[in-house]
Specification:
Length: 226
Amino acid sequence: MAVPSAPPRNRSRAAAHNRPDRRAAILLAAEKLFAEHGYHAVSIRQIALEAQVPLALVAYYYGQKHELFHAIFAHWRGTIDARMEQLRQAQASPPDSGHLRRIVEAFVNPVLAMRASSEGEYYAQLVARELAYRTPDTERVLVDYFDPLAHAFIDALHAARPGTARAQVAWAYQFAMGALLHHLIDHRVERLSRGANTSHDPQAASLLIDFMAAGIAALLPVHPSP
């Protein structure tokens, strides 16, 4: 006896259930293309082709290109939240000789964890690119998401070195940021080390933190109490 076929509505529901998440595919395609080519060099049509979705679907889910760009950063807001939470923990820790390093760890570790994830590579490249080559169209997103984070870390470093001018602390933060961004996107270390080092090696995290903490400490020396 033949088994009756599923009603059309059930077949439609099954197809919808098995269909890839096209919304997520669009976001990932945008991350990849923006990271590789820059915001201005990528069109919505290219994103649709990369995501293998109809062109109209990009606008349906995300609106205009600048809104899609903003959605990428909103999607990764958890990394910023993790850095802020670890920063709060570092600030609450004893003001001993390891206090400054714990602030740097809060600044670095969530980012490296994100970079090591299967989804984080393109986002890390995108952040590094857009922070290095800021344009008016991307400035608003970066100001909204990263300036509050930067001020929080500058304030924490200033509190750890209260006798230092905040302007000096801002320089220390900026130099540390440069080291972190370069590490996120660098592949040259493999060639420079003649194969001894691997790009983005997790074991390099402690070296990066030591380097940044020592540089910040040198720029922001402890002032003796009067």
